[in-house]
Predict the structure.
Amino acid sequence: MSEQTGRYHYERLGEKPFQQLCNALLAHCFPDMRCYPVGHSDGGRDAVLPEDGKPATIFQVTQVELALS
């Protein structure tokens, strides 16, 4: 049996709590970030960072479960 390394086990979070964590981190790093509510129809966007005179940066949060080998 292999041991998992690392202090945090993000794979234990469900889809919604994982997106909420990611949105909180993005909002902390980028105060102008607009985060969309979890579970709402957002056209694939989870957060948008508007930039003056430039196209906005769009973030999409995805949690993927990988089997440990």
Remarks:
- The mean pLDDT is 82.
